[in-house]
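Input record, target 12 of the design panel.
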């Protein structure tokens, strides 16, 4: 097999000439023949002025290159798309598949024997894992790491559960303009990813659980020397992968056992509901289907162990100090398949065996003394969600988990935005807020709009939580009794489309049900109307591709043509 610079020659109909030309051009950068004869490690550069979560990428790249060169290979840095949550319109999720496609094609098109993928902000690691799962060369991941915690009036502040908490207080009139501006200055106190157990932390931790990055690389803070040291070591491992023709690819690492280990950790750590969508997309790339029934079963048997916001109190730096992912895996060792392989050669079982307990830590609890007796995520079905929905029960109000209420329906994100704060809105604290046309196709891009704000007039009365249901997602940093990812979505003919304001909806989390409480004949009659309603779509570009080919939430909202052709129901 050809390697290094000889891989993936440009097609000119003369291989010798292709290599000759490639060498001639690259020598313009001052490379020697010795350097160009080495195995090549590609390093994806996701630095962007629009992405503060990736603010340390230049330093991580330098350290990674050092590790690659110390091991005798040649590092080659190449740019890819970078996506930040707050700088992507309409949503970062809309662009995740584009990033996955672009990263996959750049890995495929350029001569590299292994690749290091550096990412962190919510959609970037999922996109990169999807890309690498569809690629044929070995890959190792390097999360950028969580940001530092800020402080305000004696309280710790962390993006972005505290962003929502303080914004909620501002909406309710509890704090004024001056204080919310002060908080705004302190919420993100350093570069790095959100420091609570949001989607970025969840996906970084899952990357570690599933053996795709080095131990402790999921949680080491973005600004600490350990993060840079991990980058150098990642470079060393990548170089060894590049030199080994039998090195495992992401497909070899992401076995069904590794993915199930990920589900165990997701339930135990209070992970983001977004991880369910991303894991479904990743498994789709492997020809597998995410086992939602197993996810739910694990949610009944594995309690919440990690005391991090939004389900608990603390932040990623405390999780890291407490032992991070290896310590968490030790706490759920009875459910973990220790034989799962890793990209650095040891099994996950070996990593767990080497864990030294951190004396006195209270962040990572034991199964015997959990933070909460229930797992993080429950999977619901019912006539409103024939293909499923999820709720982060660990961050919900206990007294709302069984609830019957009157629906107050918003037809779109815009409709909700325009009317939610109106004093004329007919809404009461025990109503159920319904948002539709906010799924993968409907919005488009499945925005994190599922965390509908409490209507201002109820917020002023002190209402902190209500049952809210939608085909949207919510930020992993958010909290509340919120049912998400209803599939199929309203814009794809799902039954959320037939709910009317005034209907009654029945939520039964214990029974894993979400149902519209109307007569079956009326239900069927309304559904016929939905099926017959045509939906105009965009006429060109990525928007057209997205609208026509995006899958539903239960399939990861990936594009249908990017899933593995070998997809089966394992
Ligand atoms: Fe990037 Fe939260 S905004 S991780």
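The sequence produced for target 12 reads:
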């Amino acid at each position: 097999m050809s390697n290094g610079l000889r891989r993936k020659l440009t097609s000119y109909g003369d291989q010798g000439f292709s290599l000759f030309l490639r060498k001639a051009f690259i020598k313009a950068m001052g490379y020697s023949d010795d350097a160009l004869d080495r195995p090549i490690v590609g390093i994806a550069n996701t630095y962007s002025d629009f992405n503060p979560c990736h603010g340390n990428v230049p330093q991580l790249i330098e350290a990674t290159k050092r590790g690659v060169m110390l091991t005798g290979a040649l590092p080659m840095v190449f740019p890819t798309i970078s996506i930040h949550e707050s700088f992507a319109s309409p949503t970062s999720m809309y662009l995740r598949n584009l990033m996955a496609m672009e990263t996959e094609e750049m890995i495929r098109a350029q001569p590299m024997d292994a690749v290091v993928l550096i990412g962190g902000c919510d959609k970037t690691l999922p996109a990169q894992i999807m890309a690498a799962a569809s690629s044929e060369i070995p890959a190792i991941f390097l999360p950028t790491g969580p940001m530092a915690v800020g402080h305000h009036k004696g309280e710790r502040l962390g993006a972005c559960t505290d962003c929502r908490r303080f914004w909620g207080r501002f909406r309710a009139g509890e704090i004024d303009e001056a204080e919310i501006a002060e908080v705004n200055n302190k919420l993100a106190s350093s570069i790095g990813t959100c420091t609570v157990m949001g989607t970025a932390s969840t996906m970084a931790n899952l990357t570690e659980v599933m053996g795709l990055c080095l131990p402790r690389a999921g949680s080491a803070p973005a600004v600490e020397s350990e993060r840079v040291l991990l980058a150098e070591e990642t470079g060393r491992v990548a170089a060894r992968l590049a030199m080994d023709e039998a090195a495992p690819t992401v497909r070899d690492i992401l076995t069904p056992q590794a993915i199930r280990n990920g589900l165990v950790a997701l339930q135990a750590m209070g992970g983001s509901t977004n991880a369910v969508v991303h894991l479904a997309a990743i498994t789709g790339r492997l020809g597998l289907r995410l086992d939602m029934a197993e996810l739910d079963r694990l949610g009944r048997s594995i309690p919440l162990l990690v005391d991090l916001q939004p389900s608990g109190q603390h932040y990623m730096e405390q999780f890291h100090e407490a032992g991070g992912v290896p310590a968490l895996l030790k706490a759920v060792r009875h459910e973990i398949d220790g034989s799962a392989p890793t990209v650095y050669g040891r099994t996950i079982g070996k990593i767990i065996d080497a864990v030294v307990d951190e004396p006195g830590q209270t962040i990572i609890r034991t199964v015997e003394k959990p933070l909460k007796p229930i797992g993080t995520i429950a999977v619901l079905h019912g006539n409103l969600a024939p293909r499923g929905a999820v709720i982060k029960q660990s961050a919900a109000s206990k007294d709302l988990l069984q609830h019957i209420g009157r629906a107050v329906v918003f037809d779109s994100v815009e409709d909700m935005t325009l009317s939610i704060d109106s004093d004329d809105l007919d809404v009461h604290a025990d109503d159920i807020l319904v948002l539709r046309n906010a799924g993968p196709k409907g919005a488009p891009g499945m925005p994190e709009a599922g965390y509908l704000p409490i209507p201002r007039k109820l917020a002023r009365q002190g209402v902190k939580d209500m049952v809210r249901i939608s085909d949207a997602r919510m930020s992993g940093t958010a909290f509340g009794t919120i049912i998400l990812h209803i599939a199929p979505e309203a814009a794809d003919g799902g039954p959320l489309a037939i709910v009317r304001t005034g209907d009654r909806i029945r939520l039964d989390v214990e029974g894993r049900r979400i149902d519209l409480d109307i007569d079956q004949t009326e239900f069927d009659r309304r559904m016929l109307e939905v099926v017959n309603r045509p939906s105009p779509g965009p006429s060109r570009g990525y928007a057209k591709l997205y609208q026509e080919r995006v899958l539903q939430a239960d399939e990861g909202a990936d594009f249908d043509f990017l899933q593995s052709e070998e997809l089966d129901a394992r």
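The mean pLDDT is 95.
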